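Reading a protein record of the kind used here takes only a little practice. To see the layout at work, look at the sequence and tokens printed below.
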Amino acid sequence: MGTTLFEMLQELSAKLPGCLHTSVVDQDTGLALASVSESDPIDAAGADAYHSDLYRLTSLALEGMPMSQDVEGIVLSSEVGTFVSVPVEDTGYLWLVVTRKDTTVGFTQAIMRKNLARLGESLRGLVH
């Protein structure tokens, strides 16, 4: 049997130094399908919902602009950490990773790019 989505998130969070939270979130509802987090589950759910809203609002803001309307990813930085979210192609879900501030964005994005197709396959097996 293949790796479950939850097991994959556990594996990826272990590979990424400073990973505080990772989840796969429905773009429309903001509800996590699976998540691994060091923080309080309510705080993690809030971050998931916020990024879903942010993704939708960013897509709306790009409408009518002379550039692509497809949001390829969002990076937010705070005093405590960095939030990176990317859409999982053809699923209606986002992948969110939150790391400590000292983990570089480029490293986080490289890990995500390397594993996005595999995560997408696992996700599509669940939702389609």
